[in-house]
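Fold Annotation — chain and its backbone
Next Lines — sequence and tokenised fold

***
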Amino acid sequence: MRHLLLSRLLRRASPPSQPHHHHLQLIRALSSSSPLPSSDADLRKYAGYALLVLGCGAATYYSFPFPADALHKKAVPFKYAPLPDDLHTVSNWSGTHEVHTRVLLQPDSIPALEDALATAHRERRRLRPVGSGLSPNGLGLSRAGMVNLALMDKVLDVDVKKKTVTVQAGIRVSQLVDALREHGLTLQNFASVREQQVGGIIQVGAHGTGALLPPIDEQVISMKLVTPAKGTLELSSEKDPDLFYLARCGLGGLGVVAEVTLQCVERHQLVEHSFVSNADEIKKNHKKWLSENKHIKYLWIPYTDTVVVVQCNPPSKWKTPKLTSKYGKDEALQHVRDLYRESLKKYRNEVESKDSAIDELSFPELRDQLLALDPLDKDHVIRINKAEAEYWKKSEGYRMGWSDEILGFECGGQQWVNETCFPTGTLAKPSMKDLDYMEELLQLIEKEDVPAPAPIEQRWTARSRSPMSPASSSEEDDIFSWVGIIMYLPTSDPRQRKDITEEFFNYRSLIQTSLWDDYSAYEHWAKIEVPKDKDELAELQVRLRKRFPVDAYNKARMELDPNKVLSSVKLDKMFPGTQTIQHAK
């Protein structure tokens, strides 16, 4: 595999068909800028220098031959170098975290998984469970070693009467949905994308949206958890309920989820209604919209008064809506395409875009292209946000489809994201703190001149009974709001990506300092970034203890995995135990 950056840069200015001519020019340049030799000895000395230069040049040419058109090509650095064949490079989807490891196991059965964990336990080696690599913070990555269940992706049983399905935990959500289709079943709710492995999506407390619908871990009825010290445990609300609820959102630290039984629902269609609103209108209707819509989310667009409202409901709730938008796709995108062409003139001095493929790009792809021109210039970002607001105004309307199709969301390209979850009352009596939070957040962005792109996505869920879920609550009627901020990484330039990363963490820190404690907001487990600063890390540990049963979690870890096989540097920093075992990082 190849993933190392070389600093070596080879350059060649002369055409290969005239190597000697090139070196003769070089000799002349040296001669014309040097004093004339004053003796035969000096003459021989300078003649020797010239022959040496000529010989080195010839050796360089024949060692590194270039094609005939090399004169017209820009010199570029070699970006990759060969690594040992047994070294695996694993990165997360957003390209923000990456590790190299020599241990990446893919067992194809529970006995094989048990053997792998038992061996790692005996040898005191780490073997961190990793899924599809979709966690923005790389929660499952570990250079010391990883285990992935991609080969354990079978549907084991479907009970149509009880509407349940038992699967191996390595199956992807998209595969599961396809398999359930023939049985007339589907999952209750979905996250934005469907490529997560089932084991991963429940372990991090992932969620969809809908104030009556809980996070996805609540769909788990029972599971088989393979642990390093205790082997395979069968858990449910009847079999060891305390450990079952703790392990449902266990962050991969209590065991590897090998099999899961999920509660399903009948396969159904949804009508999605997207329309543009504003903050004042939302305040008037928010309570009603939360209770009346099965799924709802707001897309806030910084530096504008635009809020995109997306409501999804069964077709029976609608009176035969017109399932077409007022504008066609090209009309909706034309304003964004025009902005891109104008921006090319400004940033690249291109009078006219020569890229005919621009008309084939989706809106998120166009947004990436625009941001890549100057991702941290606030005024440029504002222009893009306003173009996005215009796009959504021209995309208002209805569409109908199966729930798994409608509830997906095109998130854009590589990105930094941060998402927090906080309580917002009950459905019968919402506290309206979710709207207060957004009002303060948008004001903060403008006050501090943050180059914040759109959208800021706001969703809702019911509570979870899993104590490690950010939406955990003992009160059945509690609802929670989830708010996600974003900064895209639309470029492969290392320096530019570094600048975006620094700006994003300043953005995140600003919100943390100003809002999190006031609203009891806690980060999504797949999006929490562990700070390097010792004082900040200590603050994080204190915050986590206020919200989650850290002692109970660590106690379970020590019982099920005393040698920290399943742990990682990130997990150990968030949940330091009384016994620390030294492992490779």
